[in-house]
Amino acid sequence: MEAVDQLASAGTFRVVKEPLAFLRVLEWLFAIFAFATCGGYSGGLRLSVDCANKSESDLNIDIAFAYPFRLHQVNFDAPTCEGKRREKLSLIGDFSSSAEFFVTIAVFAFLYSLAATVVYIFFQNKYRENNRGPLIDFIVTVVFSFLWLVSSSAWAKGLSDVKIATDPDEVLLLMSACKQQSNKCLPVRSPVMSSLNTSVVFGFLNFILWAGNIWFVFKETGWHSSGQRHPPDTMEKQPSSYNQGGYNQDSYGPAGGYNQPGSYGQVGEYGQSQSYGQSGPTSFANQI
């Protein structure tokens, strides 16, 4: 408890308020929702077959299915309305690839978000010590953004196919008894797909979060910092070239002829030529 208090008092957990770590926490939560709503799904439907001979009818045909949606392995028995004989049928389709791919990406994204958040909080100095940590973080973020887009799109298409394959009206067409007009085949209960729809929504929300976090991770890399440092360096070098030039040096003061007080202050011959002004009128008067 003392160690936790010291970390909290030192402001270690303030990094969670920054966009980089805050988005990681959201990615961690949304990844949980994504794989929980898809990987934990189980549903079913119920059908009714009312034969012309009432004794052969089956009004409660329950068909259960679940993740990973290998529907071709879901078997059920249905009456044929031809004596006591029953036929063994199965649903159509195998949609495990898209569902398992989606859940796998969600699990790995959950683990990476958790690990990155721990690094941001407890090892922030080591993370920013050199450029390797931010670069790895940036590359992984870009890869996960792409994988979230692909897996969510694939799972959205797979879910659409699952809905069609588990539609009670489509399943009734598989029964031979329902091909006879004298028999009445009706859907009793349809599968509830709300959690699967939610999983697709969370999949695309995760893509938006990871794609938006690319900018904040990029700001931690040396690529962004080097791009920000070069313009100030060039601007700093330009004034130095002017200051080192001849415009502000004292060479034009004592060394040049413009600011030397000697040439204009000490008149030289022109200052001593006042003798011409003093002796001229005296000699002219003596001569007269």
- Major sheet: 3 strands, antiparallel
Following the backbone from N to C, one meets helices and strands in this order, namely HHEEEEHHHHEHHHHH
Evaluate the radius of gyration: 44 Å
> What distance lies between the first and last C-alpha atoms, to the nearest angstrom?
122 Å
What number is the mean pLDDT? 79
- As a percent range, the share of strand residues is 5-15%
- Parts with pLDDT < 50 across at least 5 consecutive residues: 6-11, 227-288
Q: Write down how many β-strands occur, each being a DSSP E stretch of 2 or more residues.
A: 5
* Rough outline: rod-shaped
Strand order of the largest sheet: 2-1-5
Kindly state the percentage of residues in helix: 55-70%
Descriptive notes:
The chain is mainly α and 288 residues long. The protein has one domain (1-221). It has helices spanning 2-9, 19-39, 96-122, 124-127, 132-165, 168-172, 194-218, 222-243, 261-265, 269-272, 274-287, and strands at 42-50, 58-66, 75-79, 86-90, 184-189. A three-stranded antiparallel β-sheet has the order 2-1-5. It has a two-stranded antiparallel ribbon with strand order 3-4. The longest helix has 34 residues, at 132-165. The protein is rod-shaped and about 80 Å long. The N and C termini lie far apart (122 Å). It is found in: Membrane.
Summarize the structure.
The chain is mainly alpha-helical.
Features:
288 residues; mainly alpha; three-stranded antiparallel beta sheet; two-stranded antiparallel ribbon; 5 strands; 59% helix; rod-shaped; disordered C terminus
SSE layout:
Layout: H1 2-9, H2 19-39, E1 42-50, E2 58-66, E3 75-79, E4 86-90, H3 96-122, H4 124-127, H5 132-165, H6 168-172, E5 184-189, H7 194-218, H8 222-243, H9 261-265, H10 269-272, H11 274-287
Antiparallel strand pairs: 1-2, 1-5, 3-4
Helix pairs in contact: 2-3, 2-7, 3-5, 5-7
